[in-house]
Amino acid sequence: MAYSKQGWIEKVFGHKYAIDAKRLGDDSLLAWSNLGYWQDQYDDYPQACQSLADQIAASIQLKQSDRVLDLGCGQGASLLHWLRYYQIQQLSAVELQPECTKRIQKQLPQVQIHCGSFLNLKALQFLNSFDVVLCIDAAYHSDLNSFLNSTSLVLNSKGRIAFHYLMWSDAWRECSNLKKQQYRYLLKSADVNWQNLMGEQQLTQKLIQKGFTEIEIQDFSEPVLNGFAVYTENKRMERKRFDLAQLKIDMTAKLCRKLYQDGLVHYIQVSAVKN
Fold this sequence. Notes:
Layout: H1 5-13, H2 21-24, H3 45-59, E1 67-71, H4 77-85, E2 90-95, H5 98-107, E3 112-115, E4 130-135, H6 144-152, E5 155-168, H7 177-188, H8 200-209, E6 212-219, H9 221-236, H10 244-262, E7 265-274
Parallel strand pairs: 1-2, 1-4, 2-3, 4-5
Antiparallel strand pairs: 5-7, 6-7
Helix pairs in contact: 9-10
């Protein structure tokens, strides 16, 4: 069987956004696959992932009557969470990984799941626009301009949006060119284009330009970046084998640790209302 270069890479390493949730502590069929929001507990991966989802839900006051679009839903744990704990009646989702979308279609037939990029939502031809668009731990892989252009098209007037992104700290401006070059390659290893990142003022202005108000930016660097790094370090002590899947997790944890310790990049949660 012949594979394209990209196909060969995915055959060996898995999809670039896929992570082995079982290694992290979630062996369910519709598993979680985000960095988690870690508070006092450093021993329960599904709980931390659910907590990150709850943080995003709270930021836009998610309610049962909302028409909800979940972008980059991964293996589907967030969809199950919205259905079970928030009783969302009208739920749609977009996911890039075909295997995930097939599994979700089978396990959650009540969800309108689309396989594709959330940067081209117009092409997916949704029947309705949405009251809420949310994206857990995924939007920072994209250019913010493209992300907001795409989501604005499917969001109702006065609709709410919430997502996670990366943002430069004030200290970034004082960095040497050598340090900036180092970060260019560090972020590229996580499929993040450093040129897409901006400071808080610039990010806020971008949202205003795109017609959003009631903008709230929360810094989650400590509970997310540091929390995931600490958890994986603890898990490493009980690891039974090492392979490419484990390498991917370890490299992600090391990056989280460095970003948190250097303090040049903040992991943020953004919520806003469409004008």
